[in-house]
Design a protein that fits this description.
globular; 45% strand; 6-stranded mixed β-sheet; mainly beta; 4-stranded antiparallel β-sheet; 143 residues
């Protein structure tokens, strides 16, 4: 493990999480120029209308509403349970799956359509074999 690896900035946990130098992290999506459908991540063909080579890169919003969720009680070794796996509809378009944090994993406390913010944090202390840390995105109830 090199000393340089452990002193570099965190790496994005997924390809559509962007970490610009001197800027705030954000999620990147694709918007179809033909039908205005918005998707997470890169693609060459629109899944809604089938248009080819009509996708443009956009920055997705950091606010949205909880569409659906599942409280997970069993997972891989080393993953703390229970946790809340959530699907969020972002303002302006785009649907993203991630973890809902900052709230008890209790169905009485989690409400459908509740406003949430996208937050960017350390990816639960995970590191690659070179000692590089990762940053990921999470959802939390809006302040």
């Amino acid at each position: 493990m090199s000393e340089e690896a452990t002193t570099s900035k965190p790496l994005p946990a997924v390809s559509y999480l962007k970490l610009p130098d001197g800027g705030d992290p954000y999620l990147e999506g694709q918007k179809c120029k033909e039908c205005d459908a918005i998707f997470i991540g890169a693609r060459a063909v629109c899944s809604k209308c089938g248009a080819r080579d009509a996708m443009e890169t956009i920055k997705l919003a950091n606010q949205g509403k909880l569409y659906n969720y599942c409280i997970v009680f069993r997972s891989f070794p080393g993953i703390d349970v229970p946790y809340v796996s959530a699907i969020v509809d972002l303002e302006g378009g785009g649907t993203v799956k991630g973890c809902l944090i900052g709230i008890d994993p209790d169905p009485e406390k989690i409400k459908f359509d509740m406003p949430v913010d996208v937050v960017y944090q350390d990816a639960l202390g995970r590191k690659d074999r070179d000692g590089n840390s990762y940053i990921s995105y999470f959802f939390q109830p809006a302040a």
